[in-house]
Write the structure tokens for this entry.
Amino acid sequence: MATTPDARPERGRARENQVQTIFSEIAPRYDLLNHVLSLNIDRRWRRKAVGLLALPGDRPAVVLDACAGTYDLSLELNRRKDFRGQIVASDFARPMLVEGRGKLDQAPIRPICADTLRLPFPDQAFDAAMVAFGVRNLSDVDAGFREFARVLRPGGRLVVLEFTTPPRTLMRWGYHFYFHRVLPVIGRIVSGHPWAYTYLPESVKEFPGPDALLEKLEDAGFASAEWNYLTGGIAAIHVATR
Ligand SMILES: C[S@@+](CC[C@H](N)C(=O)[O-])C[C@H]1O[C@@H](n2cnc3c(N)ncnc32)[C@H](O)[C@@H]1O
């Protein structure tokens, strides 16, 4: 499928505008498309991600969900029986936060409209931080990781869930067919947005692989970091300790 020029990931400020515009425009259809296009596998991935947070057991935790969108990761954490504390859910596309508000009910989730590259929180404000399908969209991933390192207390964990490219040939073939041929078409029809779901595979294509991402986490000041593939390498989870 030909890539429209608009769908190519931009650089710097232009990228921030591009991403903010995309998610603001697709917000009303985001949840539906998320679960349909991922065949609901995303729920399992998020469950796994929140299970890796290693929260303090002796007091309520304060957790950051950055690039929180419509709060699915925050809600997954709040669903855990052993979770006590507060989740701060930040995103710079206000329509995403507004769209998801109906799902919050009485959950201890505080939405904040903020840029992940310039988090409005003091140093060491959080016991743990998490981000799902967000870092790929940052105009500067290194600066994003440095922000996470800054707002985490020593010993706090960062869990990053992100798409990646499967390492094995057959799975990679299937992935390419689905991500580049099927997903943009369904995405265009359901969201009504001409190229948002073409941007998605384009952004995965140019995103650093799991080993390179691990190096970036270490460069940003995380003491230990490791990663694992999910579902044959369609996605990966990185866990890093401050
Ligand atoms: C693919 S959605 C993921 C939403 C949610 N985490 C989830 O798992 O469904 C990516 C989100 O990241 C947000 N985002 C991207 N770059 C951002 C930035 N620099 N600051 C804050 N939010 C950002 C977008 O607005 C969007 O809501």
Notes: The chain has eight helices and seven strands. The mean pLDDT is 93. The two ends are 42 Å apart (CA to CA). The helical segments are 12-37, 41-51, 72-79, 94-100, 141-151, 169-191, 196-205, 210-219.
